[in-house]
Amino acid sequence: MKAYQRDLEEEGAISDLGQFDNIIAIHFEPPLHTFQQMCGMLRRNGISLMTLFNVRQHAERNFPQDAAMRNVSLSR
Q: What pLDDT is recorded for position 45?
């Protein structure tokens, strides 16, 4: 298993990583360009798992509001 840590806010930051069976992004809402690139990096039948903070977690646990998922729809 290989793991990479990159600044996913930076456009093109993952372009050199190749193809993956699975992609996991924790507590992150990617910019659209990064989300689209991540989808293209998955091998056929690959799985992408993303976990995000939400607005309730900001209110109840004081997580940073800018890290909370906003009402957006990400689709391939």
A: 93
